[in-house]
Every structure is written in C-alpha cells, then in structure tokens.
Specification:
Layout (H helix, E strand, L loop, with lengths): L2 E5 L14 E6 H4 L8 E8 L4 E12 L2 E5 L11 E2 L8 E12 L3
Antiparallel strand pairs: 1-2, 2-7, 3-4, 3-7, 4-5, 5-6
Length: 106
C-alpha cells in the first residue's frame, strides 16, 4: 500500500540507474518517512499554464537550510537542481516518495 514502482525514463540519473530501470518507491505521505540528504526522492511538478505534470527522481542535497534535488548524469544538459521551495518554471513542486531500491530489467 505504501510501495509502488516507477520506470525510469531519460538520462538525468544515468550515473545511478538507466532508462528502463524499475524504481521501488515508498510513498512518504502514507508511510510517514522523511526525505533526508543523500536520498533519491520522487517529485511531481505541475504547470497549470499548459497542463504539464512531470514526475522525476533526483538526489537530495542540503544547501544551506534548504533541500535541493540534483541530477547525477553524464549528460551536460542535466546540471541544474530542482528547488523544493520554489521552481520558477512550475507552480507546484511536491515531494511524493523516497526511492528505496531499483531493479534493472532483463
């Protein structure tokens, strides 16, 4: 009930897991767990202007007093963090889960 799988897509975390990898996610709201530095968190970003909803997984890093989500990629186009306390490109950024494991499919 608290666990679910997501399939990784894209290159933003390719140093950790690649496209097609199954991510075992723990819903933080149902389970009551907290996200901490060095975790991999799942966030949902929404933009009402065009209806875009994006789900992404990134590494949590503490920068000062705030938590940021950072890609871990060999692709130079993935170098910017997702700001949990305000992303200028999205109206809402909500942390939904903690990645607790992953499995590469054959």
């Amino acid at each position: 009930d608290c666990y679910y799988y997501l399939r990784a897509q894209g290159e933003s975390m390719n140093k950790v897991f690649g496209t097609g990898t199954l991510l075992l996610c723990l819903d933080i709201h149902k389970s009551g767990v907290d996200i901490a530095p060095n975790d991999i968190a799942v966030v949902e970003r929404r933009r009402t202007q065009d209806g875009l909803i994006e789900t992404t997984a990134k590494r949590v890093k503490q920068v000062g007093r705030t938590l940021q989500l950072w890609p871990e990629s060999t692709d130079p186009s993935f170098r910017s963090p997702i700001l949990l306390d305000g992303d200028p490109n999205f109206e809402t950024v909500t942390t939904t889960a903690k990645v607790v494991g992953w499995f590469q499919t054959i």
